[in-house]
Design a protein that fits this description.
Blueprint lengths: L1 E5 L6 H12 L3 E5 L4 E4 L6 E4 L2 E2 L5 E4 L6 H13 L3 E2 L3 H8 L1 H10 L7 E3 L6 H7 L5 E5 L8 E4 L2 H13 L4 E5 L7 E8 L2 E9 L14 E4 L4 H14 L3 E9 L2 E8 L5 H7 L3 H12 L12
Parallel strand pairs: 1-2, 1-6, 6-7
Antiparallel strand pairs: 3-4, 4-5, 8-11, 9-10, 9-11, 12-13, 12-15, 13-14, 15-16
Helix pairs in contact: 1-9, 2-3
Length: about 300
Amino acid sequence: MKILILSRNTRLYSTRRLVEAAKSRGHEVRVVDTLHCYMDITSLDPTVHYKGDELSGFEAVIPRIGASITFYGTAVLRQFEMMGVYPLNESVAISRARDKLRSLQLLSRKGVGLPVTGFAHSPDDIQDVIRIVGGAPLVIKLLEGTQGIGVVLAETQKAAESVIEAFMGLSANIMVQEFIKEAGGSDIRCFVIGEKVVAAMKRTAKEGEFRSNLHRGGRAEIIKLTPEERSTAVRAANILGLNVAGVDILRSNHGPVVMEVNSSPGLEGIESATGKDIAGMMIEFIEKNAKPNKTRTRGKG
């Protein structure tokens, strides 16, 4: 099988592992920088080009699209979908997951457990939004933030008001969420492939920090999931239309709540913590499912 990986950096752990896994299973694989791809979208025969070459003959594409290039990255992926190439994750599903507010609204509509979340545009509404989520302490998040950047824990009402006002003053889009104190600074990353959680790890924040991201010094360990946590993670990925996802869950007093669904989850932390060949599982999923023109949205969404 001829597989294309869209990635800005061939040296990234996740990209290297996917290349290794594909080659070890006998596939031809090529990595191209997403931002260096360009498209012919006027022709009846859509094409994607890269440094003077036409990218053709690929049977599957693995999008490793960073949050900062979501708009252009999903446009390139959509072009491959229109060419009939099978995407590991579809462009529409990636766009849904990257829009934190939209993804929470979709999950909420289907009854998935979530932290109480507020969203507002006007400074006049700040106090009522704080009341909606149960008051301080609470978490304030930039909608465009990733890897814990743009996430603030406000421990008092005054601090919450000040931070929200500051973000609004910068015309930043933010949401306000209840602080799940009982989680104790830990969350659970569930790695979903298809209809199954193939690996899970508990991430715990370092001392003095409430964000458990490994990029921020958090530590990871293997954890045993409950049946409810497994079903919640799989449902969350399916609702957003993702074949592969990192679903972040908190253990609350009222059951598992989904914090975020990541459409390009990193492999280093989860493979190191669990010892599992996640990259190989992703390639195996492609082998079983890749067929021409199998994209549900066919680049229309």
